[in-house]
Amino acid sequence: MVKPYLKQVCLVFTLMVLKVTISQLSAQDLTYKVYSIGFYNVENLFDTLDNSQIRDEEFTPQGEKVWNTAKYNEKVANIASVISQLGKELCKEGVSLLGVSEVENDTVMASIVAHPILSSRNYDYIHVNSKDSRGIDVALIYDKDVFEPISHKMYNARHKDSNRPTRDVLLVSGLLDGELIHVTVNHWPSRGGGEKLTSKFRNHAASVNRTILDSLLNEDPSSKLIVMGDLNDDPNNESVAKILGAEKKVKKVKDTEMYNPMHAFYDKGMGSNAFRDKWSLFDQIIISAPLVNAESGGLVFHKAKIYKKNFMIQKTGEFKGYPKRTFSGDVYQAGYSDHFPVYIYLKKQV
Asked: CA-CA to 231 of 20 to 30 Å: which in 73, 136, 168, 245?
């Protein structure tokens, strides 16, 4: 039984829109409710305590970064501030679901959702520790007023040739506005050691996701699926485009395939993170065919965004123009993250 929602969190609006289906486009006057779903790599959000089971020593008061309570509190406040603003162009209560990566544990997740900046939200989270050697995990923040989690499960994404564990894939299934959706939250293996040499590890993570998607689609071909995360690959890389099967154009999306709305940004040279003066779009949100097919009814894709505001951009120094990070080496910058968040809007006709 679906629980009644405590408040209306999505904006109701009427406008001339393109009604998107797999096979056709038509313009109509329609009224929609809108929900925002996002992803944010929050960059090394550790607590200040040394955990002997992981490599977190640099993020302690005695470590290279002199990571103390004051810095931790400022970092949490910065992240909470960004979250509080996501998705508010069309949804006055902001983001309803937010995948995050590079969080150490439950402590930091609790600090985020309990922060006074987010006190008006009814946020909770799902987090499970993975075996990542640095102890950085993925998690899902959700608004309890509009999303009711049903189940969650972790999937091991470590390749057999890898010499160290990586972040697990988190699958969360639940009801958004009473409608069943399935979300995987990801942080695929990095390119440390070279893009080509490490591609097989990301390809394997993509195949883990594809297996999850196929299993859900076998149970119900109309399943509404979302893959989100820091994939450490761009939309055109093999892991995303071929193994995951994420198409760049709606008209090419077949029933069991995925649509990648982030590809359009990538084709324009836009990105969510930068390295050596080159922008990448590693942070992506990818959706299944029923979410782009208005004929399927219910929730359907409206638009995608990269959240890039002036206050989040480094103004001087080596990383001028990049996302304003927390540290430059071991020098504290009091920033937000070295990634910009990304988000999409889902709309539902009323």
From this structure: 73
Q: Which two tokens stand for residue 149?
A: 């989690």
pLDDT mean across residues, the chain:
91
Amino acid letter, residue 267:
D
Give yes or no for a contact between 90 and 304, defined as CB atoms under 8 angstroms apart. Answer: no
How far is the C-alpha of 340 from the C-alpha of 338, rounded, in Å? 7
Task: Please state whether beta strands 147-155 and 169-176 pair in parallel, antiparallel, or not at all (unpaired).
Answer: antiparallel
Provide the pLDDT for residue 296.
77
Residue 95's nearest CA partner among 137, 141, 42 is 141
- Let me know: does 115 contact 105? Beta carbons within 8 Å: no
Task: Dump the DSSP string for 115-144.
Answer: SGGGTTS-EEEEE-----TT--EEEEEEET
Question: Which residue's entry shows tokens 């993570």?
Answer: 205
CA 88 to chain centre: 17
Architecture of domain 12-349: 4-Layer Sandwich (3.60)
* 96, two tokens: 């309803």
The answer to whether the beta carbons of residues 170 and 140 sit under 8 Å apart is yes
Query: Which of 43-52, 153-162, 250-259, 309-318 has the least mean pLDDT?
Result: 250-259
* Contact of 157 with 167, CB cutoff 8 Å: yes
Q: What is the pTM of this model?
A: 0.92
Nearest to 134 by CA among 108, 107, 102: 102
Q: Which residue has the higher pLDDT, 30 or 163?
A: 163
* Residue 316 exposed, middle or buried by CB count within 10 Å (0-12, 13-18, 19+): exposed
Give the mean model confidence (pLDDT) for residues 330-344.
Answer: 97
- Please determine, for residue 7, whether its predicted confidence score (pLDDT) is greater than 50: no
CA 343/CA 327 separation, integer angstroms: 25
CA distance 91 to 153: 29
Cβ-contact 90, 120 below 8 angstroms: no
If residue 265 lies in a helix (H) or strand (E), which one and from where to where? helix 263-267
